[in-house]
Design goal:
- This protein has 128 residues and is mainly alpha-helical.
- It has one domain (2-121): Response regulator (Rossmann fold, 3-Layer(aba) Sandwich), CATH 3.40.50.2300.
- It contains 4 helices and 2 strands.
- It has helices spanning 2-10, 28-35, 65-70, 98-121, and strands spanning 59-62, 80-83.
- A two-stranded parallel ribbon has the order 1-2.
- The longest helix is centred in the C-terminal third of the chain and has 24 residues, at 98-121.
Length: 128
């Protein structure tokens, strides 16, 4: 979800990569809840962080505590490391409540991405 918002807000002003500490398929509920906010993540892939270890990154953002604890140290000495643990909607298996839970997570991530872009890319006039 963060990758989708960052790509939307930065409009190719930066290369945005998304990876995890383990691969898994993109959650169809995340795809659906993002589509409700006009962000298409259906073509996103699940990449492992090791695929990006050789890149010279400017920012490394971890979005859950587990990733923050296990994310490798990249050889990016000037990279700004940021961490924000977001609510994980997939941790609740209640089918009746999934939309509300994914929307909560999406909205937290959206706000974080907006603030990140405003702060680090001086993009004050982002359309929310």
């Amino acid at each position: 979800m963060a990758e989708g918002y960052l790509k939307k807000y930065l409009h190719q002003k930066a290369n945005v990569y998304s990876a995890g500490v383990k691969n898994h398929e993109i959650n169809s509920k995340a795809i659906e809840i993002m589509k409700m906010d006009d962000v298409d993540i259906s073509n996103h892939t699940s990449n492992h962080v090791s695929e990006y270890e050789k890149l010279d990154l400017d920012f490394i953002i971890t979005v859950c505590d587990h990733a923050n604890e296990t994310c490798p140290n990249f050889n990016c000495q000037n990279a700004v490391r940021l961490h924000q643990n977001f609510f994980d909607p997939s941790s609740d298996n209640t089918e009746n409540n999934w939309k509300k839970l994914f929307q909560k997570s999406r909205d937290e991530i959206k706000l974080y991405c907006l603030n990140f872009c405003k702060k680090y890319f001086n993009l004050e006039k982002l359309a929310e």
